[in-house]
Amino acid sequence: MDFIFKKVGGDKVIWSVVFVLYIFSLLAVYSSTGTLAYKYHGGNTEYYMLKQLVILVLGFGLMYLVHRINYTYFSRISQIALYVAVPLLLITLFVGVNLNEARRVLPLFFGLTFQTSDLAKLALIMYLARLLTKRQENIKDFKSAFVPIMAPVIIVCFLILPANFSTAAILFTTSLVIMFIGRVNLKHIFSIIGIGIVFLVMMVLIAQSSPKLLPRLSTWVSRIENFKNGDSNAEDNYQVEQAKIAIASGGIVGKMPGNSDQRNFLPHPYSDFIYAIIIEEYGLIGGVVILLLYLILLFRAVKIVTKAPGNFGAFLAIGIAFSLVFQALINMGVAVHLLPVTGQTLPLVSMGGTSLWFTSISIGIILSVSREIEKKPNFTNELATA
């Protein structure tokens, strides 16, 4: 580990957190994909582990390359990324792979898929950090600050919403948090929250009256109702029940790696409900360790923010960190039945492809900010370069 740290810059604690999560990912994916291996690959249980290992190695490579880039360059990159992401979201809505009445992904090579919302999330957070930095002098003004900052948030979230309500909601919440940290007028933030609630109620009413018009929103409404009513016949509650069995049978120390029983009954044990499998095999101790790792990641990002010599780096680091940790907490909340089923994966742990790579890139950006802090160059003109 010391040898690796000598070759990389940035916050060493974050590097350690990522490394441990990578290890958990490899072990959990290997343990939870046995059914898939027998169904699609003749019982070759190493297939998905090796595939995940390749994805993790590439993810680490991307993280390393990104952390070597001066973070101020991501200000310009955010413009290009957002201009690419918005058309891709539109294309996905019309020609993306249709899965459960939702078009979220574009097909790639080697059976991989590209979830365009992953690019859009990162692009929007970077772009918000840029706009907030540029407009600090008149940040309280509605016309010259709030409207230009809010416009890309509404556009991106609106394009994600039809196929992925939970991702749109998480991104919208993250954007408001970044704006709050960026000193946007609280009156304006609360007003957009109120408008959002009214819009959501209208969408729910439309979904209930015409389910075929907004099928994904109808699915979300039924998930919330099933969560409240505890309907044991509902598919979502079946998943949660199996997850609760896995968690309860794990006890304090778990059944040890590879001994999960619920992986054979729990739908998507390698993605949406991988946290339940981790607790079953590593016990309450393993579940707490995973939770602490994400909280440490957020804490270290806050430390970076307090030391960042410019606004752009601070907004960038806290925005990305909050987004990742918020998603992780939602995934864990679903597994322990604190929240309705959302379909959100556990960042850096769940089996994935491009989603894991974008997460690795995101953490690379945080590390880039901390690396520049360590170098302590002259940042007096960061606002101009951003």
Average of per-residue pLDDT values: 85
Enumerate the strands of the largest sheet in spatial order, edge to edge or round the barrel: 1-2-3
The description of the largest β-sheet is: 3 strands, antiparallel
> What best-fitting shape do the alpha-carbon axes yield?
globular
Proportion in helices? over 70%
Poorly predicted regions:
378-386
Radius of gyration (Å)? 21 Å
Number of domains: 1
Structural class by helix and strand composition: mainly alpha
Give an overview of the whole structure:
- The protein has 386 residues and is mainly alpha-helical.
- It has one domain.
- The protein contains 15 helices and three strands.
- It has helices spanning 2-7, 12-32, 34-40, 46-67, 73-95, 116-134, 142-160, 165-181, 186-209, 215-229, 235-250, 274-307, 311-335, 354-375, 382-385, and strands at 97-99, 102-107, 113-115.
- Strand 1 (97-99) and strand 2 (102-107) form a beta hairpin.
- The radius of gyration is 21 Å and the shape is globular.
- Residues 378-386 have low confidence and may be disordered.
Task: Supply the key terms.
globular; mainly alpha; 3% strand; 3 strands
Task: Briefly say what this structure is.
The protein is mainly alpha-helical.
Topology, please?
Elements: H1 2-7, H2 12-32, H3 34-40, H4 46-67, H5 73-95, E1 97-99, E2 102-107, E3 113-115, H6 116-134, H7 142-160, H8 165-181, H9 186-209, H10 215-229, H11 235-250, H12 274-307, H13 311-335, H14 354-375, H15 382-385
Antiparallel strand pairs: 1-2, 2-3
Helix pairs in contact: 2-4, 2-12, 4-14, 5-6, 5-7, 6-7, 6-8, 6-13, 7-8, 8-13, 9-10, 11-12, 12-13, 13-14
